[in-house]
Design brief:
- The protein has a domain of 204 residues.
- The chain starts with a helix and ends with a helix.
- The chain is mainly α.
- It has 13 helices and four strands.
- The protein is globular.
């Protein structure tokens, strides 16, 4: 394998190693163990919600509603807990609501033939309306049980529970996509729908499943966000949309086929997290992080496009 092929196949992972090495050498305090754990904590929620977007992207669809749903889930779980509901029941209600939200997205796309971009944009707007109907524009603070806050703030030894949850989600998603029949059918549905149908795969079902998994991840992330902050506001998860796009697109370049994957999304999250952390420690202005992330997205799309052209050639 020549150098060009190595760079094309492993370029994103090589970039991660080089960025990590550069920050370790050039940024004071970066390689401190507390800071490394801090990076993992900072990317945890983003990585979890982006795993959901990865699932719907694997089946060849788009979802613009998951961040709005995360905000909706965040305020609903906060409201239920403040009213004294059992934390387990409050979490279950939000997760079931998320699954229902994804089911509606999937039915509208697969049964009515509405493009997923339009469907999820509209559903995202509906979710925002529901947020303000529920909260009246007011943020929720205090009154949440310690057992619930432990999910976002607790530690097992030196490791935050949130990081362990993130790693568990990554492991489950990776095994599901790569080691199960349902996972292979999801990939077949997104890779070549016509061939998948000829092979007897119910592509409609798996597209709906992709939307459900995406919405579940959004709802779960909203729950964890409230647990992390101990509060919820109407637009608390809004920033996850574009950042999820960034790390999933970046993660696609990890695969030689240019396809989304749970592991690739994790690599993308690490790159974004390390860059953000390094810039923060260097004292860079906050807007520099947005500029750098935008440039990373452009680079990721270019690399993915090149990979796709080479695959077709």
């Amino acid at each position: 394998m020549n150098l060009k092929k190595i760079i094309m196949r492993y370029g994103t992972i090589i970039a991660l190693v080089l960025i990590f090495a550069a920050c370790s050498i050039g940024v004071q305090g970066f390689f401190d163990s507390n800071n490394l754990i801090n990076i993992l904590t900072q990317i945890a929620l983003l990585m979890i919600i982006a795993q959901g977007f990865t699932m719907v992207h694997i089946v060849g669809e788009m979802d613009l509603s998951f961040a709005n749903l995360a905000s909706l889930s965040a305020v609903i779980v906060a409201g239920l807990l403040i009213k004294g509901m059992n934390p387990f029941l409050a979490i279950l209600i939000c997760l079931l609501g998320g699954a229902l939200f994804g089911l509606i997205n999937g039915i509208l796309v697969t049964r009515l033939g509405i493009p997923s971009l339009i469907t999820t944009l509209a559903m995202g707007i509906i979710a925002t309306g529901l947020i303000y109907m529920y909260t009246k524009g007011v943020s929720f603070y205090s009154g949440m049980p310690k057992s619930f806050l432990y999910l976002g703030r607790g530690r097992i030894g030196p490791v935050p529970v949130l990081v362990l949850i993130m790693l568990a989600v990554l492991a489950v998603c990776h095994i599901f996509i790569n080691k199960t029949v349902a996972g292979s059918h999801l990939q077949a549905t997104g890779g070549n729908p016509s061939a998948a149908r000829l092979a007897g795969i119910n592509t409609r079902f798996y597209k709906v499943l992709g939307f459900i998994l995406c919405s579940l991840a959004g709802a779960f992330t909203g729950i964890l966000l409230t647990s992390r902050l101990g509060a919820a506001n109407p637009e608390g998860a809004g920033g996850f949309l574009m950042e999820s796009f960034a790390i999933v697109l970046l993660g696609q370049t990890v695969s030689s086929m240019g396809r989304p994957s749970p592991f690739g999304t994790f690599i993308g999250a690490l790159i974004i997290g390390i860059v953000n952390n390094g810039l923060t420690l260097l004292g860079a202005e906050y807007f520099m992080q947005d500029i750098v992330k935008g440039l990373i997205i452009i680079l990721a799309v270019v690399i993915s496009s090149v990979q796709t052209k080479r695959m077709k050639a």
